[in-house]
Amino acid sequence: MLPVESTMTLYHAFETLVVPLIVLACALSVAARYLPRTRERVKASLAGMLGGAMAPGWRGWIARRLSPAAAAGCATGCDTNSGCGTCGSNTSASAPPPSATGGNEQVIRFMRRP
After folding, report:
1. Biased-composition ranges for Low complexity (predicted)?
2. Which of 18, 60, 104, 113 has the highest Cβ tally under 10 A?
3. Cα dist. 23→12, 19, 26, 27, 75 in Å?
4. Would you say residue 4 lies in a domain?
């Protein structure tokens, strides 16, 4: 009978550490994509635990990066014309009605996704 080796090689140790980290990163990525409100709440709570945006040094830098951006546009229910065109109250007195612009011209604005 051949003896069975029970030692862990460097490759096995590396594989044992890296594969779960990759799976965890993928799971967090999917959760962040499909649970945006939860993601923002978690980021805000982490920023608060670090001392907020006014914390000194590296903690302040990380807290500023984690702090949620100030919401603007249709998601806030504001009355200004932010260009998304989906708010019911999103009308501006200075903007001409669509029929006054002449023809079937439509303005397209590209907005970066958060």
Report:
1. 89-104
2. 60
3. 17, 6, 5, 6, 32
4. no
Give the residue numbers spanning the domain of 81. Answer: 69-114
Calculate the alpha carbon distances from 26 to 20, 21, 23, 41 in Å: 10, 9, 5, 20
Nearby residues of 19 by Cβ (< 8 Å), 6 or more positions away: none
In a domain? residue 73: yes
- Contact partners, residue 59, CB within 8 Å, separation at least 6: 50, 51
Give the tens place of pLDDT for each residue, 54-90: 889 999 999 989 887 765 555 554 445 545 555 554 4
Decide if 94 is inside a domain. yes
CA distance 31 to 34: 5
Which residues are CB-contacts of 83 (< 8 A; sequence separation ≥ 6)? 73, 107, 109, 111
pTM of the model: 0.47
Domain count, the chain: 1
